Amino acid sequence: MSAVLLKLFRHSRRFGVIASGALVLASALAAPLPAHAADPASAAAAPAVMPANFKKKGEFPHVTLTAGTIKISAEVAATQADREQGLMYRASLGPNEGMLFVFDEIAYHCFWMKNTEIPLSIAYMDDNGVVTDVQEMAAETEDNHCPTSGGRYALEMAKGWFAANGIKPGMQLQGLPR
Questions:
Q1: 153 Cβ partners below 8 Å, 6+ apart?
Q2: How close are the terminal C-alpha atoms of the chain, in Å?
Q3: Cut 0.70: pTM above it
């Protein structure tokens, strides 16, 4: 590369500056990337670290919901900060444990799974607690999961929980906070 530059800019007073810049650029482009940047698999495998201000299990308000004869132990995310955190950084959920999201307004509330380590199922509910949609959500994805109609509540449970317990659109959950 420097031989080509020498022929092109041999008679130029700027040759030294141009050649030096080109060599620095070529060196930078040829330099290897750090191991974590060069190997996306190792970057993805790095454990996520929960921010210090995030709530841990048991620090959220709690409510017991019922779906027919099934009792659900649900942490409640009713503030913007709690809804944004959701179940991020959790490694597991108990058999009938989940998180209830409560919104101030009836709207199309969409969810994603960034920094959520466990796959989940979500049931969207209207203002009366009637299930309108149930969806499956893969862990660690940024796909949007949106209901087909507006609602006030969403309940996240372990993946497959709603199907395993026969909970489907049209059923009503009891015990929802207002």
A1: 100, 101, 102, 103, 124, 125, 126, 129, 173, 176
A2: 71
A3: yes
